[in-house]
Design a protein that fits this description.
The complex is a heterodimer of chains A (about 600) and B (about 400). Chain A contains 14 helices and 33 strands. Chain A is α+β, with helices and mostly antiparallel strands and about 600 residues long. Chain A has five domains: about 180 residues, 3-Layer(aba) Sandwich (Rossmann fold); about 90 residues, Beta Barrel (Elongation Factor Tu (Ef-tu), domain 3), CATH 2.40.30; about 70 residues, Alpha-Beta Plaits (2-Layer Sandwich); about 110 residues, Alpha-Beta Plaits, CATH 3.30.70.240; about 120 residues, 2-Layer Sandwich (Alpha-Beta Plaits), CATH 3.30.70. In chain A, the strands form seven sheets. An eight-stranded antiparallel sheet of chain A has the order 10-9-15-6-7-14-11-12. In chain A, strands 21, 22, 23, 24, 25 and 26 form a six-stranded antiparallel sheet that branches. Chain B has about 400 residues and is of the alpha/beta class. Helix content of chain B is about 40%, strand content about 25%. The chains are: A alpha+beta (about 600), B alpha/beta (about 400).
Chain lengths: ~600, ~400
């Protein structure tokens, strides 16, 4: 497929939607109906090719696919469908993917209507000057109300929606309408193939054979084999080995990528850190005047420590992190040591989902048993001597006497909720130290709440709490707003009078008591009885604020060992012995790994 | 291995299932019981040849409630043993009986048939407590049985009692202990267990539904403490985790289980250990009635490691502990070569103790015994689990 197609027949677009409104299914149908793949080749969801993504129903890494559509006007059009991650953790990646597009399809569920992410995504698309085509999905549901949703789109977003295709992506209804609208309503890309090279990186992938594969949209100029490219932000320089376009699930080499095209570049680059999302690729011998706007250095928002359950696996963990990082520029890590957990790594993530995904991949793909410490955000500590520390590990908090004040990251959140749950959601936000900014009614029965919330309060279990308090009817989106001063303290946990550094965390002074008490309770449940009594204490600045006690071991049950049948007795002993594995020694106390995890998941009960 | 053999007979019948019981036992009609006893005799006689080289050192007739079987069945059973096995002159022959199921006449006939030790299930001296756990008898009925047993010339009697019963308080438990100790003459042997709520029992179901009040852990512990202290004061030696006996009255049969003597179990679900092979009969009554000699299941030759494990965790149940020299003779290596680390750690924790008795002999011959300390007995499972390899 290396024939050169006219720029005017290219359509670069993405699909945006609230979670579960059918984005991936529509993508599948588009790929299917443009005929590039036979049905037999279709996996259930072509675009999500990591196991994890399929199980969670979310898309983690942006990807792209190129298909050929023969339109009703008889011409063949090139569609470049760029997939975007659907989670707030990856907002920046989303924005770069959008920047690579000229239009967007907005999928809205015909029964549920507009949700928080619908709004967030559509505003993001409009911010990037994309032409947005609304599509009403799931019209075959009994509860579908397409006209209500069309009106809602017009009223709330202000998008013309009367001729929005009414489709069922699942059952393949109305897909052709969508394809025709893509041709008619999404503009062909601009750009001059003869100008100096200017290409936007919207994703990259590490391949053990080819090195880093850069996913890019060429805005101006042309790139081909042999071009000496330079990443304008990182400064990395290499010679292009190959360029090509995206088949479904495969890379198809081509002669060159010129203005308006979406494709990939390989150039023997060893690390995705050199090809950051948002950076501009240019020709080192004929550079463009300025990089494309919008580049931001990826910043970790959430930190936690990963420790191998088995200390001997430390090198394995290091290797695994190294490999994951090849593919994930947003993952950061550095070695750290904990008195309680031994050698491990402090890792930085875009958000809690990112953290969970990495943890799961380490455990699943690399077979590592991990102990993760409580996740925390990055605090700014202003010392009395004028120094400012960015604190990622609570253990490194300087002595209180030298701290002038501390700041924590705050997000602006938008929560969409049906009116019956407004009260309980406001209550939740209040509990999480939210600052109420306002409320707008989207329609008679639904409102959009705006709050500023400390990031610290939403990284644990805010999502779950939101779901349970709204019976699943609330949706949520947020943006990092900045840092604000806050009364923060370090909460320490002492097991048998010994401070467990891995369990320390920073918390607002108002919630210290409550959190400390709950942690002690949870640990009491999880720590098995020992030969001696074990006090579990929560302390702030050396002062104990909560305490629980694990009683000394219960006398063993005096069971009858009947008629010489000892198999049952042996099973009991075996069970007891089994339980002793997977323990961490803290002083003279054996703490099961589960205890660390349960503290992390404090909000689940 | 020496050539002693213990025999166990299982009688899986009772008048009514107690609320805590999860043993293999159930009420049955007399016809079934008789057919079962015939099958049991057939199994016993049929196995005699394979045990020809052994001398039977003890017999235990357990259940269920063996005394629900017609008396002649027990007589026939012991007759079969005498006919087909070589029975030691001084063999200990124990039978379990429950109050309310035996007459004085029956007791005399058991005694005549050779039974020389009785184990009576009392559990509690408090009628309310007895009712709450589904026992069919009262304290008064126990007293009758006990008196009749003495009259029938039983000089070695065990009484089973239980602590941590529903609604039991420390003082009520103490009362049970006192009443048992004030029997005239007092029992030679006392087994004291705590109530354990086993899945599938009536009490367990009640507990799950929140309808059962059982003493809290601290009270349970105090009861246990009380048992130890009171029985010690009254001249009973605790020779096993939950068994107490007057001098010389330890149950030889049960000791055999902890010292891994050879034993053959007959009857439904009965377990055996013969020359380091463990096996069990199946638990299907109809299958057993149809062919009692063909019900062996789970035949398992114990590996050397398994033998070591058993030697340790069974032996440590006895307060005298395990004999280091015997371990060496059996396994050809020192106990510390295998368990050095575990032994060291537990001695440091005060849970195990190693006693040496040089008794004027050279060091090699010194008697060394490893046993649980008082503190170790309290948490025996914790210690024993560490001896699994």
């Amino acid at each position: 497929m290396d024939r050169k197609l006219e720029q005017s027949r290219i359509r670069n677009f993405c699909i945006v939607a609230h979670i579960d409104h059918g984005k991936s299914t529509l993508a599948d149908r588009i790929i299917e109906q443009t005929g590039l793949l036979t049905s037999r080749e279709m996996q259930a969801q072509v675009l999500d090719n990591m196991d994890l993504e399929r199980e969670r129903g979310i898309t983690i890494k942006a990807q792209a696919v190129r298909t050929v559509y023969k339109a009703r006007d008889g011409e063949e059009y090139i569609f470049n469908l760029i997939d975007t991650p659907g989670h707030v953790d990856f907002n920046y990646e989303v924005s770069r993917s959008l920047a690579a597009c000229d239009g967007a399809i907005l999928v809205v569920d015909a029964a549920q209507g507009i949700e928080a992410q619908t709004l967030a995504n559509v505003y993001l698309a409009l911010d990037h000057d994309l032409d947005v085509i609304p599509v009403i999905n799931k019209i075959d549901l009994p509860s579908a109300e397409p006209q209500r949703v069309i009106d809602e789109i017009e009223d709330v977003i202000g998008l013309e929606a009367q001729d929005a295709p009414l489709i069922s992506a699942k059952n393949g209804i109305g897909i052709e309408d969508v394809l025709e609208q893509i041709v008619k309503k999404i503009p062909a890309p601009g750009g001059d193939s003869g100008a100096p090279l200017q290409a936007l990186i919207f994703d990259s992938l590490y391949d053990p054979y080819k090195g880093v594969i850069i996913f890019c949209r060429v805005m101006e100029g042309t790139v081909k084999k042999g071009t000496a490219i330079r990443m304008m932000a990182t400064g990395a320089k290499e010679e292009v080995v190959e360029v090509g376009v995206f088949g479904a699930g495969q890379f198809i080499p081509c002669e060159e990528l010129s203005a308006g095209m979406v494709g990939y570049i390989t150039a023997s680059i060893k690390n995705v850190k050199e090809t950051e999302v948002g950076d501009t690729v240019t020709d080192d011998n004929n550079p463009c005047e300025a990089p494309l706007p919008g580049y931001k250095k990826v910043q970790s928002m959430v930190y936690c420590g990963f420790y191998p359950a088995d200390g001997a696996k430390y090198p394995d963990l290091r290797d695994a992190l190294e490999k994951l990082q090849l593919n994930d520029a947003a993952l950061q890590y550095e070695p750290e040591t904990s008195a309680a957990l031994g050698f491990g790594f402090r890792c930085g993530f875009l958000g809690l989902l990112h953290l969970e995904v990495i943890q799961e991949r380490l455990e699943r793909e690399y077979n590592l048993d991990l102990v993760a410490t409580a996740p925390g955000v990055v605090y700014k500590v202003y010392k009395t001597n004028g120094e400012v520390i960015e604190l990622t590990n609570p253990s490194n908090l300087p002595d209180l006497s030298v701290i002038e004040h501390m700041e924590e990251p705050v997000v602006s959140a938008e929560i969409m909720v049906t009116s019956e749950f407004i009260g309980s959601i406001m209550e939740l936000c209040q509990e999480r130290r939210g600052r109420y900014l306002g409320m707008e009614y989207i329609e008679a029965s639904r409102a959009l709440l705006r709050y500023d919330l400390p990031l610290n309060e939403i990284i644990y279990d805010f999502f779950d709490a939101l779901k349970s308090r709204s019976k699943g009817y609330a949706s949520f989106d947020y943006d990092i707003k900045g840092y604000e001063e806050s009364r923060l303290v370090k909460l320490d946990i002492l097991i048998n009078k010994e401070e467990v550094d891995a369990l320390s965390f920073i918390v607002h002074s108002d919630s210290a008591y409550e959190r400390g008490r709950r942690m002690c309770e949870k640990l009491k449940e999880e720590i098995p009885r020992h030969l001696f009594e074990i006090p579990i204490q929560a302390a702030v600045g050396g002062k104990v604020i909560a305490r629980e006690t694990v009683k000394a071991m219960r006398k063993d049950v005096l069971a009858k060992c009947y008629g010489g049948d000892i198999t049952r007795k042996k099973k009991l002993l075996e069970k007891q012995k089994e339980g002793k594995k997977r323990m961490r020694q803290i002083g003279s106390v054996e703490v099961p790994q589960k205890a660390f995890l349960s503290v992390l998941k404090l909000g689940d009960d | 291995m020496d050539d002693r053999l213990e025999l166990y007979f299982h009688i899986p019948f009772c008048v009514r299932k107690c609320f805590y019981c999860d043993f293999l036992s159930a009420p049955a009609d007399e016809g079934t019981i008789k057919r079962y006893m015939e099958a049991l005799l057939a199994e016993t006689a049929g196995s005699a040849l394979s045990y020809a080289k052994y001398t039977v050192s003890s017999i235990f007739i357990g259940g269920g409630t063996p005394s629900v079987a017609p008396v002649f069945c027990i007589e026939d059973m012991l007759g079969t043993v005498k006919e087909h096995y070589s029975l030691a002159q001084d063999a200990e022959i124990t039978m379990e009986v429950n109050p309310g199921t035996v007459s004085e006449k029956a007791l005399s006939r058991y005694r005549e048939a050779g039974v020389n030790r009785l184990s009576i299930g009392l559990q509690s001296a408090d009628d309310k407590e007895l009712a709450s756990i589904g026992r069919i008898h009262t304290w008064e009925q126990f007293l009758e049985t006990y008196t009749e047993a003495r009259k029938a010339d039983f000089r070695n009697i065990n009484v089973d009692i239980m602590s941590a019963l529903p609604g039991q308080t420390l003082s009520r438990y103490r009362n049970t202990l006192e009443k048992v100790l004030s029997l005239e003459p007092a029992p030679e042997h006392i087994s004291a267990y705590s109530l354990i709520l086993e899945e599938g029992t009536h009490l367990y179901d009640l507990y799950e539904k929140g309808m059962l009040e059982i003493p809290d852990e601290d009270t349970d512990r105090l009861m246990y403490q009380e048992t130890k202290e009171l029985l010690a004061r009254r001249g009973y030696r605790r020779y096993e985790i939950s068994n107490y006996a007057k001098e010389g009255c330890e149950c030889r049969h049960n000791r055999g289980y902890w010292t891994r003597e050879n034993y053959a179990g007959f009857g439904l679900g009965a377990a055996s250990l013969v020359e380091n092979v463990r096996f069990k009969n199946g638990t299907d009554l109809q299958a057993y009635l149809a062919n009692s000699s063909g019900c062996r299941e789970d035949v398992r030759q114990l590996s050397r490691e398994e033998q070591m494990e058993e030697f340790m965790f069974l032996g440590l149940r006895m307060t005298e502990g395990v004999d280091e020299g015997l371990f060496r003779r059996l396994f050809g290596c020192g106990m510390e070569e295998v368990y050095g680390e575990v032994i060291g750690k537990n001695i440091r924790d005060g849970l195990l103790r190693m006693d040496c008795d040089f008794a004027g002999k050279e060091e090699r011959a010194a008697l060394r015994r490893l046993s649980l300390t008082e503190k170790g007995l309290d948490v025996s499972n914790y210690v024993m689990a560490q001896f699994l390899l």
